[in-house]
Amino acid sequence: MIYLCGVLFLWFILHTLYTTYDGLNNNIGTADVAVVLGNKVELDGKPSKRLQGRLDRALELYRNGYAKYVLVSGGTGIEGFNEAVVMKNYLAENGIPDDHVLVDQEGYNSYMTALNTKAIMSEMDLKSVTIVSQFYHITRTKLAFRKVGIDKVYTAHADYFELRDFYSLFREFFAYYKYLLVY
Question: If DSSP codes are grouped into helix, strand and coil, which group holds residue 35?
Fold first, then answer.
């Protein structure tokens, strides 16, 4: 039993190290669309610092010619705001034209975002994406996108870090295997 616990703990450590490495090493290439995964909106209707970090990374990719479009994906949080709408407004305020921002208001989790992105990409004949999220979220999101049939996937993490990332990294271990086995 002790041996099994040791093996499982080692597996957890190695997986967590890989997730960190994978998430912190951006794989930036020219993509049709940068997909920004939603996150908390503050009570005043503004993006949280974490979400703003994702949006700022997408702005950087768009401005530097690494994405033709930006797709914002999110649902309505407990604060009462639809994340995707708030994100679109933030991007518009920062100079991205309306017709270059695609909106998925039904991206309630990473898998739904992947499914909805695939549908939008098929409709518009787009072939490649750059996933934009926190570093700990990149590995699982890549898995979701590949499971729905999006093969050309680049990544870029937000340059925003907080103490909560340790909890999120722990949680990602379990979420990754849920996505691997369930979806």
Answer: strand
Name the E strands within the chain: 31-37, 67-73, 101-104, 128-133, 152-157
Rounded CA gap, 75 and 114, in Å?
A: 14
Residue type, 9: F
pTM confidence score: 0.94
Residue found under tokens 């002790």: 2
**Residue where the block lists tokens 């590949």:** 146
Structural domains in the chain plus CATH codes: 2-182 (3.40.50.620)
Between the alpha carbon of residue 33 and those of residues 29, 40, 102, 108, 172, the distances in Å are 11, 22, 9, 19, 25
Q: What is the mean pLDDT of residues 77-101?
A: 95
